[in-house]
Amino acid sequence: MTVAATACSVVLAGGLVACGTVKQLSAADKVSGAFGKLYEAKSFKAELGFDATADQIIAFDKAVTKDKSDQIEKDAAELMAGIKLSIAMSADKPLKDVPGLKDGSQATDINSIPDDLGFDFAYGITGKDGAALADLRYVDGTFYGKADVDGIAKIAGEDTKDLKKSTSVFPKVIQDAVGGKWVSVDTKTFKELAKEATAAAGAKGATPSPAPSVDPKVASGLVNTVKDVISRNVSFEDKGKHEGADHIYVAAPAKAFAEDLLKSVKPVAKDIPGFDDLPSSVPSDFPDKKVGVDVFIKDGALSALSFDLAQFAKDAPADVHLPVKVAFAKDAEVKAPEGATAFTKKDFEDTMAAVMGAAMGGTTKPGSTTGAGTGTGGGAAAATLTDAQVKELAALGGVPEAQIKVLAQAGMGYDQLKALIAAG
Q: How far apart are CA 298 and CA 32, in angstroms?
């Protein structure tokens, strides 16, 4: 999360808000203020998608794909033309003042994530006509998720009949998830499950390493470096009005900009996890031409970005275009959905038991004490362990009590579990 926050800061505060360091054009000031105003709001949403027809996608693909057998089909192009990705954030204060977004200081590993991050967020994928395919939200310390399994399967060319049939042995929350209903898990439960899963998967006595964090001073240095590169390479041209919005074209010589950026950022980035393995040079086939992005501003705030992917393609003819658009909005409060089924620790245990029961040849249902079927372990009664036995096995190390109970529910006895844990 800390690295992501740093990257966000570089893009928003450094890459674009930093245009305020470029004073040679009033257009630069407009762009700088537009990004700054967006970041000063209490909520924010960005939606990315192709601003192109299926025919444009096909034409672009034909221009850059040499092997005809790999060229995109009409149906796939139509799906791509309709898909949009979105991210939204909201808080009770301006986003620029939220610690986790400002300096990435919220958490360094999953166990140190607070019960409430101080802001809410949402990620979404929509298909044709705006139909939601997947929706993930975090509101007031609880994660919510919903997926249109049938819609996603249709895109992949798969059938969900067998999947839905197989979920009959799983807890209701799993059945609801596969059925396209909202499910939820609170942060406390999420951390407990993650801790148990890590302990069960790791070696005895192993302690998970904390996720990499970023020194705020280093992040600030990176932002300032990006600002300097922009001031040396980027030009701004005021194009007037377009559909009620100020239209500004921001351009730069692609290869020169990339070379300057890499040369300037590499010494600073070595101290930032995820940025410490940058290439030593720009690829030789990187486009050596001027490229740009159209910036649209309404009421002083950024409303959209538009750029042509074809300008980055080496072999694309001048008449082939593949426009991509990012639309922005300030009024985008993230809200919790109603009627979500909560995912509990017991649901996790029952799910694991069902999975293990199926793997052993049975069809153990949640909360049941017997498994049906014939195979190794199938049909055997779930092992009954005393609390003392569970604690004794857990004391051997490597497997937490909850996991031992799940394994027992799946049909493993005391001696089997002891041998399994001893084997490490």
A: 13
Cα radius of gyration (the chain): 26
Chain Cα centroid distance, residue 282 = 27
Q: How many residues does the chain have?
A: 424
Q: For residue 248, give the 3-state DSSP assignment.
A: strand
Which tokens hold the place of 366? 């949640």
* C-beta neighbour count of 177 within 10 angstroms: 20
How many angstroms separate the CA atoms of 347 and 265, rounded? Answer: 47
Q: What is the pLDDT at residue 230?
A: 85
Which DSSP category does 15 fall into? I
pLDDT tens by residue, 12-69: 444 444 444 443 448 888 888 888 888 889 999 999 999 999 999 999 999 988 888 8
The residue whose two tokens read 């999953």 is 110
Residues 196-253: tens digit of each pLDDT: 666 555 544 445 555 555 666 766 677 778 878 888 899 999 999 999 999 999 999 9
Using DSSP bridges, classify how beta strands 235-242 and 142-147 pair: parallel, antiparallel or unpaired.
Answer: unpaired
* Beta-carbon count within 10 A of 279 CB: 8
Q: Which helix (H) or strand (E) holds 124?
A: strand 120-126
Q: Which long-range contacts (CB under 8 A, 24 or more apart) does 92-97 make?
A: 92/42, 93/42, 94/39, 94/40, 94/41, 94/42, 95/39, 95/40, 95/41, 95/42, 95/43, 95/44, 95/119, 96/39, 96/40
Of the candidates 414, 407, 26, the one whose C-alpha atom is nearest the C-alpha of residue 248 is: 26
Task: Give the Cβ contact number of residue 13 at 10 Å.
Answer: 21
Cα 193 → chain centroid = 20
Count the Cβ atoms, other than its own, within 10 Å of residue 127: 18
HEC letters along 307-318: EEHHHHCCCCCC
Task: Please give the pLDDT value at position 384.
Answer: 76
Q: How far, in Å, CA of 225 to CA of 394, rounded? A: 52
Q: Are 357 and 363 in contact (CB under 8 A)?
A: yes
pTM of the model: 0.73
Q: Averaged in consecutive runs of 10 residues, what is the pLDDT profile of the chain (424 residues)? A: 44 43 64 86 94 95 86 90 94 86 56 74 91 94 93 81 80 91 92 71 50 63 80 91 94 92 82 74 86 94 94 87 94 93 87 67 50 39 75 80 73 76 69
Start-to-end CA distance of the chain, whole Å, equals: 32
Q: What angle, 0 to 180 degrees and rounded to 10, lies between the N-to-C axes of helices 345-359 and 401-409?
A: 40
